[in-house]
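[audit] Reproducing an earlier prediction to check determinism. Same input, same settings, fresh worker. If the tokens differ from the archived copy the diff job will pick it up downstream; this log only records the rerun itself.
[audit] input (256 residues):
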Amino acid sequence: MVFDIETVPDVAAGRRLYDLDGLSDADVAQAMFQLRMAKTGSDFLPHHLQRIVAISVVFRTRDAVRVWSLGDEDADEAELISRFFDGLERYTPTLVSWNGGGFDLPVLHYRSLLHGVSAPRYWEVGDDDREFRYNNYLGRYHWRHVDLMDVLAGYQPRANAPLDEVATMIGLPGKMGMSGAKVWDAFQAGDIAGIRNYCETDVLNTYLVYLRFQHLRGRLDDTGYADEQERVRTMLDESEAGHLQEFLQAWLANEA
């Protein structure tokens, strides 16, 4: 299960933490950015002040591959997080991410704490299930969660690379239509659909990089790798979603 989240400033927490009652959401967010910039030299907010507005996944089962965003467009943060962890409880999949260990999962931890979302399977480290003792979702060097950015960098932060550049380098579409920096503007404009679409193209890039990584490490041979790519192309070709069709056409154009 490849996953990605999109976030916006948690303006409700910002009001409480920084005594900003009476300000609009936009003004609260701007104050949060400025305070963060003054403290760290960057306006990128800390993990616990990131509110999740979209979670998208590529899910590969034995017989099929799907891409979608969890919940409806009007689903609140608690529902999105609950749906994510419900999937882990039900299927215990291998999780795949790009910088999930550095961003997505810590955000999910804090936001689960805020909303009281229980996720026993995710937090299992072998106390109740011995199979998790040496391979669990929390271990950086375990394989139940594969943070592709971290693994490909050899666990060296100075070797980290952006998903967009790696995807583009190997002939994938890369970022399409939006970037993480534009999500707050899109959210304020009410464009939840656009955010979800963007998140879905991000997980598609991640999944396709993962397939190449599986080929790299010998888990897929040449035929298996080609078959998995074709499975994704077929799924995209059969979709009526415009952003998925655009992703497919961009991918095919890069291979021409």
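[audit] rerun output stored. Observation attached for the diff report: The chain has a mean pLDDT of 96.
[audit] end
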